Amino acid sequence: MERRECGGGGGMPGWLGGLVEESFFVGCGLHEGRRKNEKNIFCLGCCTSICPHCAPAHPSHPLLQVRRYVYNDVVRLDDLEKLIDCSFVQPYTINSAKVVFLKPRPQSRPPKVSGNICFTCDRILQDPFHFCSLSCKVDHIMLRGEDLSSVLFRFDESDFTVSNLECLRVEGADPVDEDRNSSGGGGRRGKHKSGGGFFPQMALSLSNRRKGAPHRSPLS
């Protein structure tokens, strides 16, 4: 499949606009009859979300895996910071892997005006962070009329090949604020639930469970 032109407006590259606006974890219309057809991959070349069955049609395109935590899209910080400066975006730690939310999460109650809050959506944050998600940081920069090129990186496409995709459903633990992991208690890291993670060898253990055994899988 050839790459399609996906230039963005207002100085925003098409892949960035697509990443924060695309819908993920919805069924792929091209593979409706296939199992595990949720769109959990973002093609940086075509600026669109695709499912694992679509990936072979994008063999030379840079692909980014998007994950899911309680109905919210997240990307591993290690992957995202190869594309864009993620400083001051609050990371979370889920099963020892740092992730960043792509969009602000819905708030069940009006935000408080005191304390450290997101510059864009007013969600309460830990110091010294200014944004709760990648989208909030991008929106803030654009509203200030600043050039996004100052936070964008020229990435190596070899870091985003098909072979780097895991695309395995794994069990997740509750997120822990990154700065809470490193503060107090002599620098001890926060505890994580065992049995889940981003790593294939851990995911494989799920297949050995008894049939019908209840378990939750909030993170993909």
Q: How would you describe the overall organization of this protein?
A:
The protein is an alpha+beta fold and 220 residues long. The protein starts with 13 loop residues before the first helix and ends in a 17-residue tail after the last helix. It has helices at residues 14-21, 77-80, 134-143, 178-182, 200-203; strands at 41-43, 48-50, 63-65, 67-69, 72-76, 92-94, 97-101, 176-177. Residues 168-174 and 178-217 have low confidence and may be disordered. Residues 175-220 are annotated as: Disordered. Pfam families: PLATZ. This is B box-type domain-containing protein.
Structure in a nutshell:
The chain is 14% helix and 12% strand. It has helices at residues 14-21, 77-80, 134-143, 178-182, 200-203; strands at 41-43, 48-50, 63-65, 67-69, 72-76, 92-94, 97-101, 176-177. InterPro entries: PLATZ.
Secondary-structure blueprint:
Layout lengths: L13 H8 L19 E3 L4 E3 L12 E3 L1 E3 L2 E5 H4 L11 E3 L2 E5 L32 H10 L32 E2 H5 L17 H4 L17
Antiparallel strand pairs: 1-2, 1-3, 4-5, 5-7, 6-7, 6-8
Organism: Ensete ventricosum (Abyssinian banana)
Protein name: B box-type domain-containing protein
Pfam family, one: PLATZ
Which key phrases capture this entry?
220 residues; alpha+beta; five-stranded antiparallel sheet; three-stranded antiparallel sheet; 5 helices; 14% helix
Structural class: alpha+beta
Shape: globular
> What is the element string, with H for helices and E for strands?
HEEEEEHEEHEHH
Number of strands: 8
